[in-house]
Design goal:
Elements: E1 5-10, E2 17-22, H1 27-41, H2 43-56, H3 61-76
Antiparallel strand pairs: 1-2
Helix pairs in contact: 1-2, 2-3
Length: 78
């Protein structure tokens, strides 16, 4: 995220709780706003995103973050 965003998480929470605050109109806003709205209304995107999460469960956070970036780039052209 850039300087127009703030990211917070709850350490040790199960499931992990994350909150992102973004400036409207930025790329981060697209990912954390419009993209999530599309995911929530598209059963195929939900299925693919859940598969991504399952594939990385218990693995490296860095690998998951890279896969998540790729997912958003491939599906939303961020």
């Amino acid at each position: 995220m850039d300087e127009k965003s703030a990211y917070f998480f709850a350490p040790g929470s199960k499931p992990l709780v994350e909150v992102a605050l973004t400036v409207i109109g930025t790329l981060d806003d697209l990912q954390h706003g419009e993209a999530w709205q599309r995911i929530a209304t598209d059963p195929e995107l939900i299925k693919r995103y859940n598969a991504l999460k399952r594939a990385h469960e218990g693995g490296s956070q860095d690998d998951y973050n890279a896969a998540k970036r790729d997912f958003f780039h491939d599906n939303f052209r961020l």
